[in-house]
Input
Amino acid sequence: MQIKPILSALRRHKAGTFLIAMQIALTLAIVCNALFIIQQRIAHLSERTGIDEPDIFVIECEWVGSPTSQQADARMLEDLRVLRQLSSVQDATPSNSYPLNGGGWDDGIKLKPDQLQDSSGTTVYLADDHFIDTLGLKLIAGRNFRPEEVARIDMRDRLAAPQVIVTKALADKLFPNGDAVGKTIYLAGNPTTILGEVELLQAQSIDRWAADFAYRSVIVPRRLAASLGGFYIVRARPGQLDAAMRAAPAALFEHNPRRVINEQDGVLSFAQVRARAYERDRGMAILMGVICVALLAITAAGIVGLTSFWVGQRRKQIGVRRALGATQRDILGYFMTENLLISLGGVLVGVLLAIAINLWLVTRFEMSRLSMAYVLVGVAILLLLGQGAVLAPALRASRVPPVEATRSV
Amino acid sequence: MLKMTHLSKVYRTEVVETYALRDFNINVNEGEFVAVTGPSGSGKTTFLTIAGLLETFTGGQYHLDGVEVSNLNDNERSRIRNEKIGFIFQAFNLIPDLNVFDNVEVPLRYRGMKAAERKERIMNALERVGLASRAKHYPAELSGGQQQRVAIARALAGSPRLLLADEPTGNLDTQMARGVMELLEEIHREGATIVMVTHDPELAARAQRNVHIIDGQVVDLAEDPRFHHAVTSARANTTA
Output
């Protein structure tokens, strides 16, 4: 190996070597953290809601004329009857919110009435007895609500229901022994008994502040009869989503035209809901990806540029080496090894820098600790990038003929 | 040792063919010290680059140490350059980024020699040219004469069968040139085969034999009366 003479030569070209090594270090530090953020965002994107997404769509309906709560409730019941009668619709349910909606009702749950701290946060879904079937939730313990257990609630009413259904995540948090059904909990300060348990139901918010109770949801048997309007969650029959999404608003308008359903986003398939909810995450992942690619491209260009400059500068020297017995492979190996040594120096500093940047992000933005796997992947990418970038100028160098040694500069 | 028969080297462009060497014949025996002379543009350097396998030739035959070299591939030519030929260039051609020790080491590394043997050969070669104490110096820290001595040490370290020198004193003042020439004579006396290209009649006079080239062909030195006279005078002065 020619490591010692290459290092000796590099010591004579400190500025170029240092700049490229630092560029590699900085790129590695940023790429590692960016890849980590991308992975986190992608993992976030693929979090399950627990509902039967492919067949579900949501209608947001606003009433015209500010009906009273009783009138709104009556209209809502009529609407639900209309929706459920459609041939393309399997079921429909009213709700104050739905997973990934980004708005709704979050509250705290206590196990004792005089408890100071909440035992858990929760997302409150106001629903009727069709909620579980419409969303395709899996009831794993207890039972569903009966129609007579569902009551109307106004925006100004206290949230007081004798029974609720909770998610398994919430049940496990409150009652780790697995015997939640039948137990009393305090929701919004009012006692309520756990009637059943569903396997999975994501919170309405996917933001960081709701991460602690992302799957700790509670379903309350109450129809929110607000004068403004509300949501209908509709489950289409398999393969009839498009037909149902066309038929449902038409049927609602035909039944009662005194309503507003926004043409842009009044009817959304759950795929659209998901896309909207994760728009920022996807945007951030794309931005990070673009930054990574741009940085890697700039670094590769820097390596190509510097090596090309060095090859041009050392043309005579390469000729001399060839005259003294170097094969084309030796010359190629020289430049590849030289780049590898610079890159190794760069990645060594880059690893420390990557960890330092991550620690700063952890303390400043509550990010997770960077996994060393990302650092290793980053190191591998940068080393391969370096070798790839240096290949073309190194091949050009290897083709310098030995007779170059006899030519005057 | 070195035999070229009817050798030719043609440089072609789209419109013209230029013969750098034409029906070129030369035979250098083992242990000889031959000076190849001739006016500028006569083909001296082309001869040297072909002799040193730095360049290919267009026609004819070239046997080096009994091997016909025209069919060798690039790797084989590199190996022969490395193992059998030592080069001394007019411009020294030391690698400025490497110190004296590392410069002399370059051909030995390409031979795949072990570090201990390399070190021994390098130090022997540097002692022989009187520069062992300068092993850690860089070329820029040495005089021209010292740099050429390092280049000679580099050529000698690999124990080549043939030493090719291209105007080895061309960039040196008289005193330094004399020192380098004495070193080459000493190396020759120890048994090395040396082919030296020069246009200096005084240097040519110190070689055992002169081969004169004009227009790419070997000619009788008498065909260049001025150079012939200069060499004869120089030889007479040396003998006196």
Chain A has a mean pLDDT of 91. The interface with chain B takes residues 2, 4-5, 8-9, 12-13, 316-317, 320-330, 401-403, 405-406, 408 of chain A (CB under 8 Å). Chain A is about 50% helix and 20% strand. The longest helix of chain A spans residues 328-365.
